[in-house]
């Protein structure tokens, strides 16, 4: 995320965004716009404001009287103000802001902005170029439009929660908000940028209706492929991408951690088998006719699990990651935060080590520490 944000910092410089959203989907959408250079003004109600100010707030933040990490994380890089949209004065101020804005994003239940006299049909009159995005659970209209919901409800309706299941079929409660972030935030950013492209080419603004349930459903691609093929969605452990093959699975290590094996293509599987000193396994691959979730696949999953269980996660990572065979450790959030992929200091340290190793390898024979060894 850090590298992505840095690479696109100025792309939306000068874009003016009004953020009336709360909680997670809308604030993350406007955060992504801010990371690309947009000027985002977060507008909160008087009083408590956005509920994420105190949601999951640490005791240290509570004592210090500052918003919690949740609020700070998803609202960084934005300006803030307070407006009472139920008052005439607050509505007048918002109208003035909307007249000069490029984008307005809100996440109220459908109809709330209309009842306040601030709906798209009103704002488009004073600013025909305005891109107005409404993020809701089930869309701006339809029989479910007024229902309350959260991420778990949306992924439940979309057929996604059923796919996030253990082998006994019991669904899990994911700690990654799929509908909020994929169906809500990302879909909103995509559709807003598409609408802005039309405006940039001389068109008018438009109303962007983002239904988190519908957008999540649209992204449930693999399950829809299975439905198209035989009319049934895959259960856990029965298909190519949910545990039905040895080359794409999770394996417990000696220290109780997990190793992710994603050697889906034959070349990666062959490399892995050679590294494990099991060349006889190389031909037992789905692309060569091994039946997905069939007896041979099930047996090989067990055999591979026994091999992986003999070493720790760090040992396997040290052996297999450099071979580029799509094998990786399953990191904790704390480990991910300090990994070179996501941590600038760790990345810089790794690059320096790599540069030093490269210089050592290029040294004349007899002088290379990597060849001669340390005394």
TrEMBL record:
It comes from the Bacteria. It holds the Pfam family CoA_transf_3. Residues 352-375 are annotated as: Disordered. Transmembrane segments: none annotated. Coiled coil: none annotated. InterPro entries: CoA-transferase_III (IPR050509), CoA-Trfase_fam_III (IPR003673), CoA-Trfase_III_dom3_sf (IPR044855), CoA-Trfase_III_dom_1_sf (IPR023606). This is CaiB/BaiF CoA-transferase family protein. The lineage of its organism: Bacteria, Pseudomonadati, Pseudomonadota, Betaproteobacteria, Burkholderiales.
